[in-house]
Amino acid sequence: xxxxxxxxxxxxxxxxxxxxxxxxxxxxxxxxxxxxxxxxxxxxxxxxxxxxxxxxxxxxxxxxxxxxxxxxxxxxxxxxxxxxxxxxxxxxxxxxxxxxxxxxxxxxxxxxxxxxxxxxxxxxxxxxxxxxxxxxxxxxxxxxxxxxxxxxxxxxxxxxxxxxxxxxxxxxxxxxxxxxxxxxxxxxxxxxxx
Length: 194
What we know:
Blueprint: H1 18-22, H2 24-48, H3 56-79, H4 91-97, H5 104-132, H6 136-163, H7 166-186
Helix pairs in contact: 2-3, 3-6, 5-6, 5-7
């Protein structure tokens, strides 16, 4: 059976969780932006790659699920009287995007793999947040997100393997994961998912 998932090469230092917990309101505002952008990305991929019908249903489902996560985070923010923050470029995602190649096929492969890696890193960090939270409602929410984002990370690879053989996907995935490991270790910690 074909491998359909990836594993991050470097784990987040467990003490990273101190930065989001020190300013959880700011973390939630960043989290809301991440969910909104994830939903928008899935829908933009639907339109950009409308000639690849095998991937479209999965991307639509993903967009809806990410939008539901956004709605849930926003409801939690409203309970805390927090407003949506203006979008600032994510230094982690920005560096990963700079690694993307430019031909149409290569760009598609890289977009899907970068999205997979970002989701897997988000899943890992939501797990750290969930484990550290005392509030039962928030702990349950972030545990649920940990599981969902892990599934999303695998989904992008699964969809990519509908379009390309493993030998076109996994070597490039390995290259991008090695780069991601260097990026993660070089970035300062902040009250943000990445």
